[in-house]
Design brief:
The chain is mostly beta strands. The chain has one helix and twelve strands, in the order H-E-E-E-E-E-E-E-E-E-E-E-E. The protein starts with 10 loop residues before the first helix and ends with a strand.
Amino acid sequence: MIAMPTEIQDAGQLQALLERVREAPELWQGRVRFDEADRVSVSIGGNEHLEVWLICWNEGQSSGMHDHDASHGAAVVVEGQLREDLLGPGGPVASATFGEGACMLFPAGHIHDMTQVGPTRAVTLHAYSPPLQYVGRYDMGAGQLRRDAVPRDQDARYVDGWDFGHALSSAATPAHQA
């Protein structure tokens, strides 16, 4: 069993938690599933201070340009590869590819898009602290950058499945489509 932290975590602390979760595949491996149309996100656990997600990516699937509002975040690649594209004031500013075992840290306000790349599907573990309240979605159409703050329960990626009442080792929660 992995103890859930009892206070808000920064990105580095979330990385350490995700490493422990990755090393305990019995908590998430049986929940891995893929969908041809969308990413599949599965709640692994959470409380009032943080949440942990398993995300399964088919070929070319993308998160879309977004931020995590006031939440810090971290993600570890369990298998496959993801490319992270960063957004700055003038548009895209950097891109990096992360393979198995790599960890990405997201300070609050970090704007990025994550896309599955490489020859195989990808599986990642994500943690956010405090738990997401809003997801900032970005539209770069018509020569302007627009941010829409979408409540987490209205963001297509996070419909259903929110469960803050269980520990990481408790019974599985249902998967939901990205």
